[in-house]
Amino acid sequence: MRKQKGFSLIELLIVVAIILIIAAIAIPNLLRARIAANESSAVASIRTINTAMISYNSAYPTVGFAANLTALSGSGSSCTPPTSANGCLIDSQLASGTKSGYSFTAAASGSSPAGSYYAAGSPLTPNQTGVRSFCSIADAVVRYSSAALTSCAGTETPLQ
């Protein structure tokens, strides 16, 4: 009789158990890394909106700051020529209001010309796509809060 070669059932179960233990350790770290990446993207998007608002205010001083995200973007694929209704200053993904697991809003306030604005971004699914909300006002300081934000009062904690 010839001796058969191969792995026994016990050996295979041990290997599967080791793989499951490694996966149980790695998955939470992966989720935390994804949340950190989404939050970094949200901060960058708020900074992009700040820059676009300041550029828009300089380009259209009679209007002031843009009324919403749509006014900062272009219409369709063409941005020629930019107007106060289509400033061509931010990409269409950010102008749609959602990017990298966050929902963004922006609005101007004050009579024409609008003298101030706010920009805010909150996670679409709290504790899964992000744990902090970010916002900024006309001083261009990015702030954060652990609560969902729809506007920015300027009293939130400044980002360091």
Report on this structure.
By secondary structure, this protein is of the alpha+beta class. It has one domain (9-158). The protein has three helices and six strands, in the order αααββββββ. The protein has helices at residues 9-59, 69-72, 92-95, and strands spanning 98-99, 102-109, 116-123, 133-137, 143-145, 157-158. The protein has a six-stranded antiparallel β-sheet. The longest helix has 51 residues, at 9-59. The mean pLDDT is 90.
Brief account:
Helix content is 37%, strand content 18%. With 160 residues, it is α+β, with helices and mostly antiparallel strands.
Tally the structural domains: 1
Assess the beta-strand content as a share of residues.
15-25%
Number of H- or I-type helical stretches: 3
- How would you sum up the global shape? elongated
Unreliable segments of 5+ consecutive residues: none
Q: End-to-end distance, in Å?
A: 74 Å
Protein topology:
Layout: H1 9-59, H2 69-72, H3 92-95, E1 98-99, E2 102-109, E3 116-123, E4 133-137, E5 143-145, E6 157-158
Antiparallel strand pairs: 1-2, 2-3, 3-4, 4-5, 5-6
State the main characteristics.
elongated; alpha+beta; 160 residues; single chain
